[in-house]
Specification:
Number of helices: 4
Structural class: mainly alpha
Order of helices and strands: HEEHHH
Strand order of the largest sheet: 1-2
Radius of gyration: 22 Å
Number of strands: 2
Helix content: 55-70%
Distance between the termini: 55 Å
Largest sheet: 2 strands, antiparallel
Length: 121
């Protein structure tokens, strides 16, 4: 790595730090980490809404609509797992019995973490 690249990296890092006075001296303060993603309350609301849609689909719904509802539900489950630091295989497994088992396992882990999926939550 050349000198120019090192200087550029240091300059970028210095711009991300802010300076503040403490005890009569100038200090660099590292900015606090900002939360990533949506608030957990919104994720939980979407999980409940999509779970209800998947559990009792409208009469005469096509396979495409059911598959879309399943995918949307799995997407918010993945989002909830990311927010609560839960490992999962939802994005790895193909549709089928293994994915259904993994979805049930993730729902149980989310329940243990305090995210209630049923309507009475």
């Amino acid at each position: 790595m050349g000198l120019r690249a090192v200087v550029h990296r240091c300059a970028v890092r210095m711009m991300s730090l802010r300076m503040e006075w403490r005890h009569g001296r100038l200090h660099y303060a590292v900015p606090s980490a900002q939360p990533q993603g949506r608030p957990l309350e919104l994720i939980a609301r979407d999980v409940r809404r999509l779970a209800a849609r998947l559990e009792s689909p409208p009469r005469g719904a096509s396979f495409a609509k059911l598959d879309g509802a399943r995918r949307a539900y799995e997407y918010v489950l993945v989002e909830a797992c990311a927010a609560l630091a839960i490992d999962h295989l939802l994005q790895v497994l193909p549709p089928g019995e293994d994915l259904d088992v993994e979805r049930n396992r993730v729902e149980g882990l989310l329940w243990l973490a305090g995210l209630r999926i049923d309507e009475t939550a």
